[in-house]
Amino acid sequence: MALRMWASSTANALKLSSSASKSHLLPAFSISRCFSSVLEGLKYANSHEWVKHEGSVATIGISDHAQDHLGEVVFVELPEEKNSVSKEKNFGAVESVKATSEIISPISGEVIEVNTKLADSPGLINSSPYEEGWMIKVKPSNPAELESLMGPKEYTKFCEEEDAAH
Q1: Nearest of 135, 159, 146 to residue 61 by alpha carbon
Q2: What NCBIfam families has UniProt attached to this entry (predicted)?
């Protein structure tokens, strides 16, 4: 963790972004001024959820920026498989040491898988928000909804503006 913090602060000070992969499963990431990683190849909602769309499946979680602002996550409430989620509607909650926050679905569809690891290890959202901390996998009912979400550059700018306003 200390190495990640040092690398993030150094990259930030030098205004660098990395083209190295966080893992073999995810595309390259960039480091924003708020030390949160924003991944290429993902779409982001202004409520700080991310979507990775692959074929007929969309994986959804909360962004590194969101988990950073929440603090230590201690509990996660998620829907059951075969439930429906609707764009811009609550589908669960994340409880941290600071507060409880609703999780808003960035797209509509049927839940086909839930990350059951989060029940016993909610801290995966903090340590690995884009990999092990994903929340649900959805079969999108309207893939065109993805087009209304932000790309990495837009989301980074959105986070910077939001942080500056607070």
Answers
A1: 135
A2: gcvH (TIGR00527), PRK01202.1 (NF002270)
Is residue 55 within 8 A of residue 87, CB to CB? The reply is no
3-state secondary structure of 46: coil
65: enclosing H helix or E strand = helix 64-70
Closest CA to 39 of 24, 22, 53, 54: 22
Angstrom distance (rounded) from CA 8 to CA 18: 10
Helical ranges in 115-151 per DSSP H: 117-120, 124-127
CA distance 109 to 100: 24
82 Cβ neighbours under 8 A, 6+ residues apart: 110, 111, 112
* Phi and psi, residue 16, nearest 5°: -105, 155
Q: Which position has the token pair 């509990």?
A: 75
pLDDT tens digits, 16-27:
333 333 333 444
Q: Which tens digit of pLDDT belongs to each residue from 115-162?
A: 999 999 999 999 999 999 999 999 999 999 999 999 999 999 999 999
CA 77 vs CA 5, 74, 92, 143: distances in Å:
29, 11, 5, 25
